[in-house]
Write a structure and sequence with these properties.
Blueprint: E1 2-5, E2 8-13, E3 16-22, E4 25-31, E5 36-38, E6 61-67, E7 71-77, E8 81-90, E9 93-104, E10 110-115, E11 118-123, E12 134-140, E13 148-153, E14 169-174, E15 183-191, E16 196-203, E17 208-215, E18 218-224, E19 235-237, E20 242-244, E21 247-253, H1 256-270, E22 283-285, H2 287-291, H3 297-308, E23 314-317, H4 348-357, E24 361-366, E25 370-372, H5 376-381, E26 389-390, E27 393-394, E28 396-397, E29 400-402, H6 408-424, E30 429-432, H7 449-470, E31 475-478, E32 496-498, H8 508-515, E33 524-528, H9 544-550, H10 553-562, E34 567-570, H11 579-594, H12 596-600, E35 603-605, E36 617-624, E37 627-634, E38 640-644, E39 647-656, E40 663-667, E41 670-674, E42 680-691
């Protein structure tokens, strides 16, 4: 029996359901699509920690399947478990989403140590002899260095024919509550012989795991959440109990732009929607190069009238509106979330009312998942079961304890806190931050730390959903010390996410140039700080005269352009700009607003491929219909930038720049831009004739 569903072909042979085709991946041999290891059962392999050859994989037999226009449900059984693998397709995208649910059908309790969301073979038409044609792109992450794709050949990562199979894996395991601190949960597999690219995505807001490895002469792809070896996870299932894996997604194309574009179309189906965010409003946040952790009523009243003149819609007061400690020591004391009398002597509501009187909406920051280790009042209030803990002790990282949203007392207090921020303090925008990683997880009320973390992470998102439902007119932002939780489980619950806390306008293009491979343009928040001067965290020591002399129009325009491809988060001491400088900021806000409609259905465009830190120039953009919206940055010595174009151009316009002389032309299929000076940027709109 052959089951065909969109890009999936499953052949049932001798009772075993074998995946023979999944989009660009196909093999005549076929491969099982579920790996599941039950504790105490024989894992029939001596290949180390690889996920292949689990105890149940070769015991599972086809049981049934059902099919609709957009869903295929495949059931398989061993004597211990029944697995239900659900394949879903989406309108206008070739992406396929998959998850697996396992049910204990035995008469005794079992413990799952590993289970895949999905697994398939077919990487390379010649099996492991295809290694020389295969390349893998992983998306490296770190603070201020988010979304840095790096491409490697399979042999350079250790996969090639030496034997019929090896101990080697191309793999990564995220461990902990920051889901994207080292890598994004996505990757690209390129087969140069076939001319095809497969992209995958794992949707988990905590631990996750992928593996590309060889087994009996073929390469396979394994996608899933945490497991016993990587993530300290296991799950006990009593008779009849079930466990559902995270969602994983595959998309396909002939080029990077196509594969990422198909994933982008899928992401729009699941992205967190918010009515008040539907028009992608511009935002001013006074944290970066302004208040840092020490906002005050006086400073906000000084800055807000200037900000209002830019045309932004939201004005957000970040960390420090609460508590009385100085900004450089505040974090170990946070957790009560009551307004600071010292910084806001007339109350925060008086300040947010003032912001509204200027025609803007007001926002406040909070870090709801932690309390400081010196917040004695809240330590006395919360019970021990309100904290993530291991070995009976509260987990403490960098002066913070972590709250457990499985506890009713936590949910009640934090729900009341959000109510107070909205109803009493006047917040119409709430930035939910998360600035530490708790590590492997919590063993309290859990089968293992990784399983406890999974429970707690789901409970937190359930609380977020409840707050968004209770306050539909409030815009909630997801932030995690920049982009440390930039996954699509999180982004299915939020309409906007911080992509980085990068503090240098000169470095930000290296992040912005890649970010649309990871986040929808309508969700990707990017800082724009025209006056990024002075020491981060400290008050600006300069006045208007210094700014007029040292902050060039090119620097201002570059900062504005940094935010054009995503969501503008304007910041810094705008009151120090002179009239000409301020006009450039105001024009940038106006132009950002003009891009909204195009951005909502746009697909990412990387004409020169992905960028990396330190290169001379960056070009990145998005395509909407026949229109290309393209940012070009000149960052090093060479003032001429050449941008490869994959289509004929009918019309080109320079739509935003510093006003300095910039020459541009189409020559030999390239956009050639000659800048007047380095550290410059320009934004173009191009109308294409037709795709080649």
């Amino acid at each position: 029996m052959v089951i065909e569903f969109k890009g999936i072909v499953i052949d049932v042979v001798d009772g075993r359901a074998l995946i023979k085709k999944c989009g660009n991946l196909y093999t005549d041999k076929g491969r099982i699509c579920v790996e599941a290891q039950v504790a105490g059962e024989d894992k029939s392999s001596h290949m180390g920690v690889k996920m292949a050859n689990s105890s149940e994989a070769y015991r599972l037999r086809y049981y049934s399947h059902t099919q609709t226009e957009d869903t295929l449900i495949l059931k398989q059984r061993s004597h211990l478990i029944e697995t239900t693998t659900v394949f879903t397709c989406y309108e206008n995208s070739n992406a396929i989403r998959v998850y697996t649910e396992a049910e204990n059908i035995s008469r005794e309790a079992i413990v799952l140590e590993e289970i895949s969301s999905f697994m398939c073979g077919g990487i390379g038409e010649k099996g492991i002899d295809s290694a020389g044609d295969l390349y893998f792109t992983r998306f490296i992450q770190s603070h201020h260095v988010e979304c840095q794709p790096q491409t490697y050949s399979f042999p350079s990562l250790g996969l090639y024919r030496a034997n019929v199979e090896s101990q080697k894996r191309i793999a990564f395991a995220n461990v902990g509550s920051w889901s994207t601190k080292e890598e994004l949960p996505q990757g690209l597999i390129e087969d140069k012989a076939r001319g095809e690219i497969t992209m995958f995505q794992i949707e988990s807001n905590q631990a996750w795991y992928y593996e590309i490895a060889d087994s009996m002469g073929e390469y396979y792809l394994y996608l899933g959440g945490a497991n016993s070896s990587f993530g300290g996870w296991c799950k006990k299932l009593e008779q009849g109990e079930r466990y559902r894996t995270p969602n994983v997604v595959l998309s396909f194309g002939k080029t990077v732009n196509e594969a990422v574009g198909e994933m982008t179309k899928y992401r729009r189906h699941i992205a967190g929607k918010c009515a008040v965010d539907a028009h992608l409003p511009s935002i001013f946040n006074e944290y970066m190069y302004l208040s840092w952790d020490s906002p005050s009523e006086a400073q906000t009243r000084k800055i807000a009238p200037i900000v209002a003149k830019t045309g932004v819609e939201y004005y957000v007061i970040d960390c420090g509106w609460h508590d009385e400690e100085d900004g450089d020591i505040i974090y170990p004391f946070v957790g009560k979330w009551y307004e600071s009398n010292k910084r806001f002597p007339n109350g925060v509501k008086a300040t947010t009312d003032y912001i509204r009187s200027l025609g803007m909406k007001a926002g406040l920051w909070i870090e709801p998942e932690i309390i400081g280790k010196n917040c004695l009042e809240m330590l006395a209030y919360y019970d021990e079961d309100c904290f993530l803990q291991r070995h009976g002790k509260k987990i403490c990282v960098n002066g913070r304890y972590f709250l457990d949203f499985r506890a009713k007392k936590v949910v009640a207090y934090m729900s009341e806190t959000i109510r107070r921020m909205v109803k009493e303090y006047g917040a119409e925008y709430i930035k939910l931050d998360y600035n530490q990683d708790c590590g492997v997880g919590t063993d309290y009320l859990a089968d293992a730390p990784g399983e406890g973390l999974e429970q707690a992470a789901k409970a937190y998102l359930a609380w977020v959903d409840a707050m968004r439902s209770r306050f539909p007119n409030v815009l909630f932002e997801a932030c995690s010390s920049g982009g440390m939780r930039m996954d699509y489980q999180t982004l299915s619950h939020f309409s906007i996410v911080s992509t980085s806390d990068q503090v240098s306008h000169h470095k930000y293009p290296y992040i912005v140039g890649n970010i649309l491979s990871a986040v929808l343009p309508e969700q990707a928040a990017v800082w724009s700080y025209p006056i990024d001067a002075g020491e981060p965290g400290l008050p600006l020591p300069y006045d208007e005269g210094w700014v007029a002399e040292n902050i060039s129009k090119e620097r201002i325009a570059l900062n504005m352009i940094n935010s054009f491809l995503g969501r503008m988060h304007l910041a810094s001491h705008l009151e120090l700009l002179n009239e000409e400088q301020f006009a450039l900021v105001k024009e940038g806000v106006r132009y950002y607003n003009s891009l909204v409609n195009a951005k909502k259905n746009a697909l990412p465009y990387f004409p020169n491929g992905f960028t990396r830190f330190g290169v001379e120039n960056v070009a990145s953009g998005f395509i909407s219909g026949e229109n290309i919206y393209l940012a070009v940055w000149c960052l090093r010595e060479n003032k001429r930038v050449a941008v490869a174009l994959d289509r004929e151009i009918e019309r080109i316009a320079l739509t935003y720049s510093s006003g300095a002389d910039i020459a541009y032309k189409i020559e030999d299929g390239k956009l050639i831009v000659d800048f007047a000076c380095v550290d410059s940027a320009a934004f173009f709109e191009l109308k294409s004739k037709s795709t080649r």
